[in-house]
């Protein structure tokens, strides 16, 4: 028996067929999620290091890999009706899955603190407000941004339908003005890079900046009506949406030496548009972020009270923002970008190899406290990613998946020998 109710977004159970969504709903929600200010800074770094043509290749390769990663996890989520934290029970065990819950939950609450602090600080700066309003604004937005997540999938969907088209219009207008300011396409192509970076580092930046988000996009692709919807929505969000953020950040860095589209809009004399863009940009990511935290928190605590966990997460994120801890958290969260992707690698291997592409129903299966095959594979993948000189997130995913297959076969052989000896 599930302790999830029909309006609770199924935090502890599979999404039933009657609650599934179509392509537009799933795609626009993921698109809004990937409209993220921090991704633009990665684009800005790349924009200063390459000519425009090479920059586009780095963006295409990095975001295609990211989109494919999200799409495979999305396909699994759609077929099983489970998100990453619930799939973690099969991969890591009933108790072992709490490791992934804590890792995934902590990254999301850290980003929530960053977004809450960012909007308060930037609004005070752009609008010339008194500094004393910074903390009250953090409290206002810390709880305000979680309202659509509190409602659930329907709230996230509704906001995305309004915000995404508005942000696209502002972004296209800003890019058009930037192209005019630099002297057209010929002027853009003539810009010489002022810094240096290898292509593999650029791809790592593109792929790694939002890979933790891609790992948890299963919170929405599990609502997809079909595998095709899940795959196309993932590619739209993470290949197109994240790609736009990278290119927009690079554009701003090349033309104005400023990767953040909000700052660019201010430089272009569009201050009110900048406020609107900042508000929508952060809200469509913040509500998804706190929704991710609630999903991880519900699995960690084994509670169906998603709305309560959402409010608790908003309170924690707000306190972290007020305490200034968001400044110290960001380097750690970027570090987690290399140790979170192996979770996705283990999920893929466990689903396709360990369970032959079919999970049993969660309510009907008895799982071990610890799945040492999955935990061991994750540890090997995370260490490989951490010490890898190459594209660390990709290495982590590939090594974790391969290690799972090897450990799975070794464990099966060991069990077989024990059974023979026992007989």
Automatic annotation (TrEMBL):
Membrane topology recorded in Swiss-Prot or TrEMBL: Multi-pass membrane protein
Gene Ontology terms, MF aspect: cytosine transmembrane transporter activity
UniProt keyword terms in alphabetical order: Membrane, Transmembrane, Transmembrane helix
GO cellular component: plasma membrane
Main location: membrane
Membrane spanning stretches: 22-43, 55-82, 103-127, 133-151, 158-177, 197-217, 229-253, 265-283, 309-326, 332-353, 365-384, 390-408
UniProt subcellular location: Membrane
Taxonomic superkingdom: Bacteria
Classification via InterPro entries: CodB, Pur-cyt_permease
Family the entry assigns: Belongs to the purine-cytosine permease (2.A.39) family.
The protein's name: Cytosine permease
Biological source species: Ectopseudomonas guguanensis
